[in-house]
Amino acid sequence: MNTDKPRNAKFIISSQYFLYFGVLGIFLPFFNLYCYHIGFSGFQIGVLAALRSVTLAMFPLVWGVVADRLNIRRPIYIACNFISTAIWALFLFTADFWPMLIITVFYGIFYAPVISFLEAVTMDVLGREKKNYGRIRVWGSISFIAMVLVLGRVIDLFSVNIILVLILAGSLLLSVGSVRIPGIQTRNATRLPAPAAGSLLRMPVVVFLGCAFLMLVSHGAYYGFFSIHLDNLGYGSTFIGIAWALASTAEILVMIQSKRIFSRFSLQNVLFFSFLAATLRWMILFKAQSPAVILVSQLLHAITYGTFHMASILYMDRLSPDRDKTLGQAVNNATTYGFGLMVGFFVNGYLYEIIGSFDLFLLSALIALTGGLLFQSYQLAVSKRS
């Protein structure tokens, strides 16, 4: 009986990852392309993406404090899934910039805590088996791949507008499935948020989050303008879908080997190597126009996202006190996929029409290299002192 419960919990969490990243497989490659095709400028696209990231940065912290203080992580997770789904439906009724801006903000407020809460629940369920995180998270990548491959062809046959309805349908399935999420709680249900904030202001945490912030800033050109970059090079939605799918396929290969990777290499070494791989990846996209070279560069996603993301989750879990695991993952997610992508989207949106997409990737390479050098310099300084 006891062995069935963890297995059932792992299945439920895996299915949530499957649905969450399936929706992301529609949104990430194609929503900005949708905005581009309905006439939005690069700056407007950047602003929309940046504001979405602002909400992803701010509100996981708010929700995380409330969840940890009142011990209501599960109800918040369920409610935010349903409310964000209802708000997304409003995109079906407008294609004007200002209404879409307002919808984006309110959608982000409730969508914001979903992934950080899911990551925290996953860490709780895995317990001492945290190195197996990739085996659960990999189902999200499988779903992402299937979605971008199928959707690229569908868009070529019909219209990019179809993504709005598909995201709504996927979000509704995710919401319905969220009611089965495990209700694991922390022991202290009435603590105040102040001690949690202090525990996350230690130097190792600050340095890690600062460098991780730079890593995600460097991804702003990729997540914001890669599909538009390929579209302007003359590639259709099918090729765009294949490119995104290839990246996630490479990501799967490292995720299913997560236990072996983290048993052999330290989290610090994996993180530094990921920074270097990101530098190489963006330099390739700065020069590449050949379809073969572009697709080969997508294989580096295994490192720039796959190993970096897994190592970041595990490293933040290690740095966070037991009582503050939810807030720790929320801070990590807010700093990287929130503030990091916000800055990346805004800067790239502003520069897109000034310097073009090729030079955006050159800038991304320099930012990733800076983050890696800072991270490694701190690690070397700590090892010398100890």
Protein described:
With 386 residues, the protein is mainly alpha-helical. The chain has a single domain, classed as Up-down Bundle (Growth Hormone, Chain: A). 83% of the residues lie in helices and 0% in strands. The longest helix is centred in the C-terminal third of the chain and has 61 residues, at 325-385. The N and C termini lie far apart (46 Å). Mean pLDDT is 87; it is low at 186-196.
The percentage of residues in β strands lies in under 5%
- Secondary-structure element order, N to C: HHHHHHHHHHHHHHHH
Helical run tally: 16
CATH topology: Growth Hormone, Chain: A
Largest sheet features? none
- Describe the global form: globular
Structural class: mainly alpha
Compile the SSE list and pairings:
Layout: H1 4-37, H2 42-70, H3 73-88, H4 97-111, H5 114-126, H6 133-157, H7 163-178, H8 193-199, H9 203-218, H10 220-232, H11 237-255, H12 258-264, H13 267-287, H14 291-298, H15 301-319, H16 325-385
Keywords:
single chain, mainly alpha, Growth Hormone, Chain: A, 386 residues
How would you summarize this macromolecular structure in one to three sentences?
With 386 residues, the protein is an all-alpha fold. It is 83% helix and 0% strand.
